[in-house]
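Example 3.2
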Amino acid sequence: MKNIVLLSLFLCSNLFLFAQREITKEEQLSETNPIILNRISEWQDLKFGFFAHWGIYTQEQLVESWSICNEPWIDRKGRAYEEYKQWYWNLNKSFNPKNFDAKKWAKAAKDAGMKYFVFTAKHHDGFCMFKTQYTDYSVAGKDCPYSKNKNNDIVKQVVDAFRKEGFWTGLYFSKPDWHNKDYWSELWATPDRNVNYDIEKHPEKWKSFCNFTYNQIRELTQNYGEIDILWLDGGWVRPQWSINNDEVLSWLGAYKRVQDIDMPKLAEIARQTNEDMIIVDRSVGGKYENYTTPEQQIPEKPLDYAWETCMTMGDSWSYVKNDNYKSVNTLLHILVDIVAKGGNLLLNVGPDENGNLPQQALDRMKSMGSWLQVNGEAIYNTRPIAPYKQDNICFTHNKNGKNYALILISDTLALQDEYKFSFSEKLSKGTKKILGYKQKAKLSYNNGTYTLKILDKEKIKEQNVLVITL
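Structure, written as tokens:
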């Protein structure tokens, strides 16, 4: 009840923001444009994407931009906040990844069986990994050593390299920009992640920040050819109608300021040269969150809308030396579980300060690719089919009309002689193909239950996921 009262007071105190622009019912509803809906469906066929968090924070193995945010969970090892923040801002003066080769990244991701790519063009700290006219705080800015590189636009390099390998290209962009003085003004303290001034009292500053954002969105979506996905982060920058639960309210920090960046206008700019671009306004809902992005988690059951789990291969989004990388077995089980429930996996690897992908990550990516070369038909172009997942068996349905059973194998769940399951469709009994093996399986049916018996089990050496065509 207390939260409801606080929310009511908060909404009433911010009615001024409704006067800034017309709030339409349409933007609160899901997307209905058939062009974009078709593009989302095509994206759902891809299933497996590559995510790369990379920026100036990588040099110090920090938790992305967050160490300059004044919130209780941030650990700056006892350093004074303002002193630390100035030290962090100067990391642009040493960023010079001498081994960076976008072509190597793209080749590794292709060999891993990945089909789309999302790259951090700008994180919350405001440092731009692209050449921009609107700030010098970028890889091409005069204070950054990398600016002396003849190819100093990193976004251009990654987009060109991945597009050449046949990937869909996506750009991560933070709506908040902590380096921009129209977001974090020097006139006031920065108590948390949010804008640090009263927008009602200084509407001109907020308008200036919005225009800065629009201009950078225009650069990213019009200067690099066709961009398939605009992946927007910073969910505390959102319209008033979308503040609909206690978690979102908590993001707004000490002053509960609504930061409406006018997504209809931003989306119109983004799609000026690409009408079917997918936009992911994370956590906001409505027309401009074309698919949802549960972070570091897998839903318990299929969702009624398009979704993607974004997950780290290790424990950290950005590079940390000796990170705790998940095993190939775990990664494949995660991928299969997600796909069986109708989602995509966007798997993150953080490049190091010199632009190298860690060898441990490369090894795992290669192994995943080897498995997908054999078993990809049970992953790509599939949709969920009941019962989706039953014990340690997952199920998928390919657009080619085939159904698949994907048996999860691990040290604790070794390959069994037979598996029993129910199924939502009638399956033909008899001999079934095991992908990648000469050995077969036999499917029988009795009293509502199917039994899948693995023939010559001792000759099968699979240690991760065994795929059988039903």
